[in-house]
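Hey, does this match?
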Amino acid sequence: MDSVPETLQPIMRLSPSTHFVSFAQAVLFRGAGLDIAWRHCVQMTALGPLFFGVALSRFRRMVARAQTA
């Protein structure tokens, strides 16, 4: 996040991959347990299905357009 421009940082915080990287760094490099990394797990669990739903909706619309064409 440090290399991302300040104007884009709030948007990047909505990305599940940002939370996964923070979680992985905490566990792999710092030996953090679930007591420390639980927030990242909750955020990934909340944001993951949201992004999946958006992608699934876009995919269905694309397939529907392809069938009518």
User: Anything to note?
Assistant: The chain is about 80% helix and 0% strand. The CA atoms of residues 25 and 31 lie 9 Å apart.
